[in-house]
């Protein structure tokens, strides 16, 4: 479902002057036998996530596998009781909006609510069910912590946290011309995703959204240019092939919608560990579980009927490489990219360096270089020198040993061992009890 850009509300009548929402009452068309069979076959594929990644690439997204798969999981989570919320950050032309829009094409219209922007009042004038168990996709938004900006997102925050938002509004009776007060409520739950060029997300919103990043590397730029060239030469997927890919995903998502609102338990949740030295670990842990649940829902048909509402170890193994970089960034653990930056700095022989020098060394933008240095600084990998001035920061390496990003989140191997250990102990105890009973009988 889609919604045109909403405008500020009309102060005289209390009604938001938003363009009408289209298709808000649409229901999913019933799957044909063929569509259901093909959707089930697709969702049961052992290499399901490889196929999803390949399909996303076929419809136009090159590189960005981590980002595009995570966005796909955010959209899929709409059917869960507590869907995911995310913001994709990156500079202009990084491709963040393109990735979100292309992934959205793989979801049927009734699964989406798309708007360029939406005023705080406009939420309360949406038709009943307009966003319930849908993926809400908003355009780019300015991020700042002014009281005015924070207040304009109040309805959104209520909806994201509690699954609904209510407000008393003034409504004009067209027949009598009198004004009355009515209680308006917008109901979720809903998944949510938006994009921004801002480096920092509004503090009030940051705790409620999974921060994702578009890749800004030189290699990604080369991949995009190569893909544009292939498209121009007519060597990429044709319209009919793309149409078939989209149809397959629409059918699969309509099938998953049959599990709408059903819980997804994670029996091994207490065995998943993240560093807890920072308060931010609370939200990080919640998002780890959210991504695991979304993976588990996509793999619903790969499990016995009695276990379809439970995440298994395979779900965690798939979620781990997608969620680990996010955990590392949030908890300031050194990532593979940080490791590469430190190694390049060591090889360069630079005893002190500035962001512009690092940008030249790594062949990235000044902004990208500053971001890398900020992460290294927060992890105590670099420090300011005496040459740092107000408008010019100068750094040097601290010599601190690099720590692996794998330390920020329980690995699938460690999780497997933790799960199997109690089972092994129980089996050993049962064997000992049985042996003691046999010996007792023989005496």
Written overview of the protein:
With 443 residues, the protein is of the alpha/beta class. It folds into 2 domains: 2-260, Rossmann fold, CATH 3.40.50; 336-406, Winged helix-like DNA-binding domain superfamily/Winged helix DNA-binding domain (Arc Repressor Mutant, subunit A). 44% of the residues lie in helices and 12% in strands. It has 15 helices and 11 strands. The strands form 3 sheets. It has a 7-stranded mixed beta sheet with strand order 2-1-4-5-8-3-9, covered by helices on one side. Strands 6-7 form a two-stranded antiparallel sheet. A two-stranded antiparallel sheet has the order 10-11. Helix 3 packs across helix 10 (281-298), helix 10 packs antiparallel against helix 11 (313-330) and helix 13 (355-362) crosses helix 14. It is globular. It starts with a strand and ends with a helix. Residues 1-25 have low confidence and may be disordered.
